[in-house]
Amino acid sequence: MQNRKVLIRRLSSVAAIALAPFILASQSGAQTAPYGQPSTAKGDWYMYFADPTGSRYLPFDQINASNFNKLEVAWHFKTDQLGAHPEYKLEGTPIEVNGTVYTTAGSRRDVVALDAKTGELKWVYSMNEGLRAAVAPRQLSGRGVSYWTDGKGDDRINYITTGYRLVSLNAHTGQPVESFGEHGIVDLKVGAYHGVIGQPGKYEQIDLVTGEIGLHTTPTVVGNTILVGSSFKEGSQPLEQNNTKGLTRAFDARTGKLIWTFHNIPQQGEPGYESWEKNSADFNGNTGTWSGITVDPVLHSVYMPIEDPTDDAYGGARPGNDLYGDSVVCVDLDTGKLKWYFQATHHPIWDYDMSSPPLLMDVNIDGQPRKIVAVPTKQAFLYTFDRITGKPIWPMPEKPVPQTNVPGEKTSKTQPFPTKPAAYARQQIATDDLIDFTPEMRAQAVDIVKKYWKMSPMYGPAVVSKVGGPYGTMDIGTLGGGTNWPGASFNPETHVVFAPAANNGVSMMGLVEPPAGLTDLKYLEGIGGQPFRINGGPGFGSSSDAPKVSDDDRRLAAALAAHPQTAVEAPPPRAVNGLPLVKPPYGLLTAINMDTGDTLWQVPNGDTPDEIRNNPALKGMTIPRTGMGAQDGVALTKTLVIQGDGQYVTSGGHPRGAYLRAYDQKNGQEVGAVWMPAPQSGSPMTYSYDGKQYIIVAVSGGNYSGDYLAFSLPGGN
Predict the structure, then answer these.
(1) Helix 13-28 and helix 2-10: axis angle, to 10°?
(2) Which of 520, 560, 591, 658 is the most buried (most CB within 10 A)?
């Protein structure tokens, strides 16, 4: 214990507050904390993903396999009256500290404080941001809030508004903290920037109202530091190549003062700038940090998952590997200085964003204690590294991958492939992956596939496509496969990761040339413009209303050259009789032993959804449990994996709805399920207060608007 005391004295004040939970975590799996601080050991779920490691784990088992089916709705909080209209995409995960539940809710992203036992509203905070919110790239209620305390009564709730402001509220009253920023608010658009056309190395501040940047996830708070990422409009092709650049920043939790900024696209003179050939780092954007950020305060290390640069399917305007696109990046907690990085996808053009919070784990590999970090991904690989050095835990060789035939594009000749853990979901489409409920359905699927250029292995690039076909490369895992923003979970006592994954995310990767007369427009001399765009059509985001080119607006002309919004013929259907093109399972839940990298078990994620079960083409057939292709997060108790259905399913005498399910962590067997009025739309959490354990999950979708459901066992407190 003497060595630990010495270590504490050497740490800065930023990390010292958070140190104690991590000293004992490796011994007991529970996170203890100094007096006045929340902890999972006390029953608090005090961060979006439970604790700074991203575990989503609470070591309680009052709710267990023997009684899960007895759960009842203790209370629920409907969000309809928050905002100008009801929300049907409630993605929040609440936090709970000392008997109060905090979360975001409603179409205006209000913050609410609720009694943890009854759900009674304690306070609500709302900000009407007008046009700034109306044009924001990330709308609706977002995914929750963060908590900070000095341990002496100064307790605060921090969140990001729709219009990209960081707000600090008094946790007891809901009022802005006057000493933080400007009357409780820091304008996060200040400091966001893009390049200046024609002037390499020059940057300009984005417009504070209409400038494109935002964030829907929660800030990460550790010690006295608030970490904030960035995100942009959803969709594969921003309106202009020179979009706002991704940032990751740290702010003082007491004052709101900016501590450091990490440029996700390096500026001249910074490491990684040379990976953008022809100075293209100056005139590209995006590359945000839109998923959760995790922290090891003992190592003073921040782990950031970073997304694609502009745009997701064509990189002709950004030759090179394009750091730090599709990378996990480790920086110093105090300074933001780069410690190490690993790029999972070189020259990203597949929308393989690093989409999940990194998991920080203390495990035993080959008999030796190791501090590791693992990142779940859309590729269904769990990329695993030493979290001190960044070196892969198991071999991760660079292997040759298919190359592009698109003019102006230059794909990487190799990509890294983890050897362990094994992929935990489908990574490519072959004939054997196609729907096979009947031979006729398989034959229809084969006919559909013939209208594409090819079914591709992983990293098959988009190809030049034509109106009327052939339509492009058929791929999986890019837009909807593998693990997305809900991430995975880790049990620090058993050293097992539980990773949910969609297994049917078919994507079409085809590029078409812009209309005649626009191919000679350049957004920047020396790079050669952006002559291709994604093949569109109904359901693919195209529009028949093409914007007009202004001769004296160079940037608009550049945007149109890169992304002409002309309607093209729709590709062939990607389904057979309304059924997915690929065979089940459509979703999976996988347990992975992180001491060995071995898969322990794998089961379908959820039951068979109504849209499959009730399809007329399957009438009279017995369909095995298919699982669901929705992106659904999980929470862990001491013995259970908790995950809800992400699609509607009708069974068991209940009206149309969905189920919250419990799986045994040892073998994946479903041990309980309770009915919900709508599918899970936000990741679940659990907490214990006054001797009673609760589970909260956000549900919404279809004609059911946002609702937070709190379950507990009947009777008692």
Answers:
(1) 150
(2) 658
For 5, residues 6+ apart whose C-beta sits below 8 A from its C-beta are none
Cβ contact 566:518 at 8 Å: no
Distances in Å between the Cα of 456 and the Cα atoms of 383, 408, 427, 549 are 22, 21, 10, 37
CA 98 to chain centroid: 28
Cα distances (Å, whole numbers) of residue 414 to 19, 114, 511: 40, 51, 22
SS (H, E, C) 648-673: CECCCCCCCEEEEEEEECCCCCEEEE
pLDDT for residue 662: 98
Has residue 699 got a pLDDT over 70? yes
659 has which bridge partners?
675
Instruction: Answer positive or negative: Cα dihedral of 427, 428, 431, 434.
Output: positive
Q: What are phi and psi of 611, to 5 degrees?
A: -65, -20
Domain ranges of the chain: 197-213+230-249+264-354
CB 375 within 8 A of CB 305: yes
Q: Scanning the structure block, which residue is given the tokens 């539980």?
A: 498
- Mean pLDDT of the region 24-28: 34
DSSP, res 396: -
Distance CA 17, CA 6 (A): 15
The CA–CA distances, whole Å, from 548 to 154, 420, 512, 533 equal 54, 51, 19, 17
Span of 222-231, 505-514, 704-713 with lowest mean pLDDT: 505-514
- What confidence category does residue 717 fall into, taking pLDDT thresholds of 50, 70 and 90? low
DSSP state of 581: S
Gap between the Cα atoms of 531 and 529, Å rounded: 6
Over the stretch 60-76, which tens digit does the pLDDT of each residue have?
Answer: 999 999 999 999 999 99
- Rounded to an integer, the average pLDDT of 408-416 is 94
Instruction: Specify the pLDDT at position 540.
Output: 25
Residue 165 · residue 213 · CB < 8 Å: no
Among 257, 256, 246, 333, smallest CA distance to 291 is for 246
Give backbone dihedrals phi and psi of 329, rounded to 5 degrees, phi first: -120, 130
Do 128 and 106 contact (CB within 8 A), yes or no? no
Is the peptide bond prior to 616 cis by the omega test (within 30 degrees of 0)?
Answer: no
The DSSP element (H or E) to which 19 belongs, if any, is helix 13-28
Is 358's pLDDT higher than 50?
yes
- Mean pLDDT value of segment 462-487: 80
CB of 495 closer than 8 Å to CB of 595: yes
Kindly indicate the confidence band of residue 452, based on its pLDDT and cuts at 50, 70 and 90: confident
pLDDT value of residue 481: 84
Residue 582: pLDDT band (50, 70, 90) is very high
Burial of 712 (0-12, 13-18, 19+ CB in 10 A): buried
d(CA 98, CA 581): 48
Q: Say if CB 38 and CB 44 are below 8 A apart.
A: yes
Distance, in Å, from the CA atom of 531 to the CA atom of 182, rounded to the nearest integer, reads 45
Share of the chain above pLDDT 90, in %: 71
Rg (CA), the chain: 25
- Given a cut of 60, is residue 40 above it in pLDDT? yes
Contact partners, residue 329, CB within 8 Å, separation at least 6? 248, 262, 264, 303, 304, 306, 338, 340, 341
HEC-encoded secondary structure of 584-605: CCCEEEEEEECCCCEEEEEEEC
Task: Write the DSSP assignment of 289-323 as a string of letters.
Answer: B-S--EEETTTTEEEEE---BS-SS--TTS-B--T
User: How far, CA to CA in Å, does 419 sit from each of 50, 383, 487, 593, 626?
Assistant: 30, 10, 21, 14, 28
Residue 520: is the preceding peptide bond cis (ω within 30°)?
Answer: no
Q: Which helix (H) or strand (E) holds 708?
A: strand 704-712
pLDDT band at 311 (very low <50, low <70, confident <90, very high): confident
DSSP state of 523: S
Rounded to 5 degrees, φ, ψ at 685 are -145, 165
